[in-house]
Specification:
mainly beta; globular; 29% strand; ATP/GTP-binding protein; 1 helix; four-stranded antiparallel β-sheet
Length: 91
């Protein structure tokens, strides 16, 4: 009989820790899970909350959502990588 993988509660991953399909990032604006989307997998239009410009199909970008149990699918946002990296420098 195959083994079952069971979720073991434990400490949060440290900033930059890989979660397989996402990495955990911590900053002064909170704890986030960040997934990189390569241009070949970007097939829809999105609006970047950092610059309010479109992310066109074929453009590499990141998908970000709050870490922990409070984050849900509705909380995911698509950002340009540069906008995400500079978010804490904005007013």
């Amino acid at each position: 009989m195959p083994r079952r993988n069971r979720h073991q509660p434990g400490p949060r991953p440290r900033s930059g820790a890989s979660l397989g399909w996402a990495t955990a990032e911590s900053a002064r604006d909170g704890d986030w899970l960040v997934r990189t989307v390569p241009g070949a997998q970007a097939t829809k239009f999105y609006r970047c909350p950092g610059c309010d410009h479109e992310i066109r199909p074929g453009t590499p970008h990141v998908v970000v959502w709050p870490a922990g149990e409070t984050g849900s699918v509705a909380d995911r946002r698509h950002w340009h990588r540069g906008c995400w990296d500079r978010r804490t420098q904005r007013r």
